[in-house]
Amino acid sequence: MGLFSEMLDEKRIKDGFKDSGHVLMITCPGCACESLSYTEGLPCRALESGKDMEESAVAVQRVRDQWDRVLKEDGKKVTHISVAFPCEMFDTERERILEKLQDADTIALLCCSSGYVAVKDMLPDFLGRFVPMMKTTGTFVFKLVLDESGKNSKVEQETARVIKFSKVNQG
Ligand code: SF4
If you measure from the C-alpha of residue 129 to the centroid of ligand 1, how many angstroms do you get, rounded to a whole number? Predict the structure, then answer.
């Protein structure tokens, strides 16, 4: 893991939801979480959750909850599911997504581009829309440190290394 993804422009994401009635938001607690900790200045993982990726993914949960509020204020029904990890799912994960889909007319992906493609590919007959919320632009090497509360990790901004895909082959 270590794909670097950034939030897409807020207006673009909002436009994607324009005609939505029920949005199913699929979130990945993997490297999307480190990416959001870095780009949004959020805590990364709750230390008390140990190695439980889904429970510990504070940055992803915070961004998910922000969008949950925005969409609900706009009168939409919002449901969500955390999938670890959409880029390498077992059938059991696909089944969880199918069960959660119900009457959703929109699937929003808070994860990297691999996760977006993986979910889109598993639902070729879905008649609704897919809304990517992040774009993947590189890889990262991050140093994690404690946040101010001492309860979470966060990405140390000063030492963060983001290697954009455009630079990867240039050494
Ligand atoms: S789906 Fe993307 S963000 Fe999630 S673990 Fe896989 S590579 Fe990382």
Answer: 21
Instruction: Give the range of the structural domain holding residue 88, as residue numbers without chain letter.
Output: 3-168
Query: What's the total number of domains in the chain?
Result: 1
| 156 neighbors 145 (Cβ within 8 angstroms) | yes
> Is residue 30 within 6 Å of ligand 1 at its C-beta?
yes
Cα 82 to chain centroid distance, Å, stands at 9
Q: What is the CATH number of the domain that holds 71?
A: 3.40.50
Closest CA to 115 of 140, 141, 136: 136
CA dist., res. 168 & res. 103, Å (int) = 42
Pocket lining: 109 vs ligand 1, CB cutoff 6 Å: no
DSSP letter at 23? E
The pLDDT profile of the chain, 171 residues, written as one tens digit per residue, is 599 999 999 999 999 999 999 999 999 999 999 999 999 999 999 999 988 888 899 999 999 999 999 999 999 999 999 999 999 999 999 999 999 999 999 999 999 999 999 999 999 999 999 999 999 999 999 999 999 999 999 999 999 999 999 877 665
